[in-house]
Specification:
By secondary structure, the protein is of the alpha+beta class. It contains 15 helices and 19 strands. Helix content is 38%, strand content 20%. The chain has a 7-stranded mixed β-sheet, with helices on one face. It has a 4-stranded mixed β-sheet with strand order 5-2-9-10.
Length: 514
C-alpha cells in the first residue's frame, strides 16, 4: 500500500495502488464521447503563482535509476497528468526546477524506465524547496526533507499504517465470525478504529489549520448524521439527518481553491453530493450548480473545470428534462463570454446544442411544423386536434426506426388511439420519398399524419434564415420522440415507449401534473 493509500484510510476507505502510469499526459477527466466539451487543458500543471524569485527547486535522488528522466505527476480531477521532469545523472540525482510554483496538492514521483510508473506520493505545499531521497525497491521509505507538510504526512502515515492494517484484519474476520456476538464485537472494533482515525484527522485540522494536510482532511470528511431527531408538531423529524448532512457537506471547503483538483477525492465527493443530496429536478440542480460555480469563480483552474464538468453532465443528461441545466449554463455563463478556455470545436458544439434545445423544453409550447403529407398537402402540426400528440422523427432506412416504429403503432392501435392520441410522423429527409411511402404502406401506418419537408420548403426556410425542425426539436438522431398535451405543450421527450405510456396514464389521472 502506498503513502496516500494510508492517508485515505477512512470512511469510505480508498486504496490507491502503485501501477503503470498512463502514457497520456493531458489533464482530460472524461472519456471523450461524441458531444463532450474539451477545454484547452495544460500539458503541465498550471503554476499556482509567480514566486518572488524562489520558484521551485526540488532535488531528488532516486536509486538505482541513472541517466534517465524522472517526472513529477499530480492528480487532476479524476485524471492524472505530468507536471515537471528532471534528468537523473550517473549518481541518480536530479532537480525539478523552475521560476514558478506548482499548484499545491497531492503529487507523485514517476519513473520512466521501463515504463511510466508511480513510485510514491508526496504533498506539494507552498514551500517548494525540499529534497527527496528514495529507492525504487523501497517505495514506502522515501525521505523528504525541508517540507513541513510532508513531515506531518509522514507522522500520519505511521499512525494510519498501524490503524489501517488493524481495520483491514478486522474486516477480513467478519465473514468468519462464529456467531452474532463475535460479529458485533468485530464491528465495534472497526467503528472504534474509524473514530480514532477521524480524531487524528480532526486534530490536524484544529492544530494545523493552515497546512495542506488539514485542507485534504477537510475535503475528505463527511458530516456524521445525528441520531437524535428533533420533534416537530409532536413527531420526530425523520428527514433531519439528511438535511443536516447536506447542510454541512461542504463545511470549510473553498471551491475557488485550485488545490482541490490535485486530489483524487474532490470530484468523487462532488459526484456523491449530486447523486445522494440533490434532487434530480432541474431547478434544484441549477441552484446547486449556480452556488458552486459562483463560489469557484476566482479559481483559475477550478472554475473552468467545474463549468466543463457540469456542461458534459447535462448536455446529454441521464434524466429527461435535465438539459434545462445545460441551458442555464449557456445563458448565464457561455453566452456572457465564458468561452476563452474552450477550443473552437467545443465552443461551436455548445452554442449549436443550446440553440437546438431552446425550442424543446418541457412545459413549453412545441414549435410549429408545417410539413407535407404523402398526397402533397401541407399538414400543420397545430391543426391536429388531439388530447395528446405524439411526434416521431424517423427514417425508414434507420435500423432502430425499423424496430421502433411498428412498436409505436402497436401500442397506438391497442391503447393510445382510444385515449385520444394522434401521431404526427416526420420523415427527416427528402431524398427517398418512394421508400418512405413504401414503409408506410407495408406497416399499415394509415392512421398517422405522415409528413416530410419538401426540398423547396427547406430551401425557402434556409433562404429566410429560419431554424429547421432538426434544430427546433433537437432531432439529431432517429427516432426522436415527443409527447405533447392538448395545447401542444411538450410533456415528455426521448423516453422508452413504456415510459411514454406511463406519462400518459399519469396525465389522464391528474391533468395538472407537470
Amino acid at each position: 500500500m502506498n503513502s496516500m493509500g494510508k492517508l485515505l484510510l477512512t470512511i469510505p476507505v480508498l486504496f490507491l495502488s502503485i501501477a503503470p502510469f498512463a502514457q497520456n499526459r493531458t489533464a482530460n477527466t472524461k472519456k471523450p464521447v461524441t458531444k463532450t466539451v474539451q477545454p484547452t487543458a495544460p500539458q503541465k500543471a498550471v503554476p499556482q503563482k509567480k514566486a518572488d524569485g524562489d520558484g521551485r527547486e526540488i532535488s531528488i535522488t532516486l536509486k538505482p535509476l541513472k541517466n534517465c528522466f524522472v517526472y513529477l505527476g499530480c492528480y487532476y480531477g479524476k485524471g492524472r497528468t505530468l507536471a515537471d521532469s528532471a534528468w537523473l545523472d550517473g549518481n541518480s540525482h536530479g532537480t525539478f526546477k523552475a521560476n514558478t510554483k506548482l499548484t499545491g496538492g497531492i503529487y507523485f514521483v514517476v519513473s520512466s524506465q521501463p515504463q511510466l510508473t508511480i513510485q510514491f506520493e508526496l504533498l506539494m505545499d507552498d514551500a517548494q524547496h525540499f529534497s527527496i531521497q528514495a529507492d525504487t525497491t523501497q517505495k514506502d521509505n522515501a525521505i523528504i526533507s525541508g517540507s513541513k507538510d510532508n513531515d506531518l504526512f509522514k507522522e500520519y502515515t505511521k499512525f494510519s499504517s498501524v490503524k489501517g492494517k488493524y481495520r483491514f484484519d478486522q474486516m477480513n474476520k467478519l465473514p468468519t465470525a462464529k456467531n452474532a456476538a463475535d460479529s458485533s464485537t468485530i464491528k465495534a472494533e472497526i467503528i472504534k478504529t474509524d473514530k480514532e482515525i477521524r480524531a487524528y484527522q480532526n486534530n490536524v485540522i484544529e492544530k494545523q489549520p493552515e497546512s495542506l494536510l488539514a485542507m485534504l482532511f477537510t475535503v475528505m470528511r463527511r458530516p456524521e448524521a445525528p441520531t437524535k431527531l428533533p420533534i416537530v408538531n409532536g413527531k420526530a423529524d425523520s428527514t433531519y439527518p439528511y438535511h443536516f448532512v447536506k447542510g454541512h457537506f461542504w463545511d470549510d471547503v473553498n471551491f475557488y481553491d485550485d488545490r482541490l483538483l490535485r486530489t483524487p477525492f474532490f470530484e468523487q465527493k462532488v459526484d456523491e453530493y449530486y447523486k445522494y443530496y440533490v434532487s434530480p429536478e432541474p431547478d434544484s440542480i441549477i441552484n446547486e450548480v449556480k452556488f458552486m460555480l459562483l463560489s469557484a469563480r476566482t479559481g483559475k483552474e477550478m472554475y473552468p473545470y467545474l463549468l466543463t464538468k457540469f456542461t458534459n453532465k447535462y448536455v446529454n443528461p441521464e434524466y429527461m428534462g435535465q438539459d434545462k441545466v445545460f441551458l442555464y449554463l449557456f445563458n448565464d455563463f457561455y453566452s456572457k463570454g465564458d468561452t476563452t478556455f474552450l477550443d473552437a470545436k467545443s465552443r461551436k458544439m455548445i452554442f449549436d446544442r443550446a440553440y437546438s434545445l431552446m425550442g424543446s423544453q418541457l412545459g413549453e409550447p412545441a414549435a410549429q411544423l408545417n410539413l407535407t403529407d404523402t398526397l402533397g398537402n401541407v399538414r400543420p402540426m397545430y391543426n391536429v386536434d388531439a388530447k395528446f400528440t405524439f411526434i416521431v422523427f424517423w427514417d425508414p432506412h434507420c435500423g432502430h426506426c425499423k424496430e421502433t416504429i411498428p412498436r409505436i403503432d402497436s401500442i397506438y392501435k391497442a391503447r393510445w388511439k382510444a385515449l385520444g392520441l394522434k401521431v404526427y410522423s416526420v420523415y427527416i429527409y427528402d431524398d427517398n420519398v418512394p421508400d418512405w411511402k413504401k414503409f408506410i404502406n407495408e406497416k399499415g401506418l394509415f392512421d398517422w399524419v405522415n409528413v416530410y419537408q419538401t426540398k423547396e420548403a427547406r430551401e425557402a426556410e434556409i433562404k429566410s434564415n429560419q431554424p429547421g425542425f432538426r434544430q427546433l426539436y433537437d432531432a439529431r438522431l432517429t427516432p426522436t420522440l415527443y409527447l405533447l398535451d392538448d395545447k401542444k405543450r411538450i410533456i415528455a421527450k426521448q423516453l422508452s415507449i413504456e415510459q411514454f405510456d406511463e406519462v400518459i396514464t399519469v396525465k389522464l389521472k391528474n391533468p395538472t401534473t407537470k
